[in-house]
């Protein structure tokens, strides 16, 4: 199948509707029955502000968070349509065309 891999970048401290953006985004993806999403945290990253963001021993608020989803063209369009309904959301993403499928029985 053909579709897109979409990777969203945020940090643990950013929230929407009193929920971390990464968790919110994963819940939105799940509620739309779009499978194939993963939330990952990183140790360090350089943000669009060109500043180093990292998790600290006592404070994880600045920890980089990545949500990656692979979906069909239709699923991608539906997801972007849903995300764009949020007026207070400012979210960086990368969208790459991919071929995906399953191997084995």
How would you sum up this structure in a few lines?
The chain has helices at 21-31, 73-83; strands at 2-11, 15-16, 19-20, 37-41, 44-46, 52-54, 64-72, 92-99. The protein has 105 residues and is α+β, with helices and mostly antiparallel strands. The protein has a four-stranded antiparallel β-sheet. It has a two-stranded antiparallel sheet with strand order 2-3.
Characterization of this structure:
- With 105 residues, this protein is of the alpha+beta class.
- It has one domain: Alpha-Beta Plaits (2-Layer Sandwich), CATH 3.30.70.120.
- It is built from 2 helices and 8 strands.
- The strands form 3 sheets. The chain has a 4-stranded antiparallel beta sheet with strand order 4-7-1-8.
- β2 and β3 form a beta hairpin.
**First CA to last CA: what distance?**
17 Å
> Rough shape?
globular
The counted number of beta strands is: 8
Total of helices: 2
Q: What summary fits the major beta sheet?
A: 4 strands, antiparallel
């Amino acid at each position: 199948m053909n579709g897109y891999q979409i990777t969203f970048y945020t940090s643990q401290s950013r929230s929407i509707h009193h929920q971390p953006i990464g968790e919110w985004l994963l819940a939105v993806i799940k509620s739309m029955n779009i499978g194939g999403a993963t939330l990952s945290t990183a140790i360090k990253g350089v943000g669009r502000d060109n500043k180093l963001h990292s998790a600290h021993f006592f404070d994880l608020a600045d920890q980089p968070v990545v949500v990656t989803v692979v979906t069909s063209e239709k699923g991608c369009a539906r997801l972007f349509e849903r995300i764009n309904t949020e007026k207070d959301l400012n979210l960086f993403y990368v969208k790459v065309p991919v071929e995906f499928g399953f191997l084995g029985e």
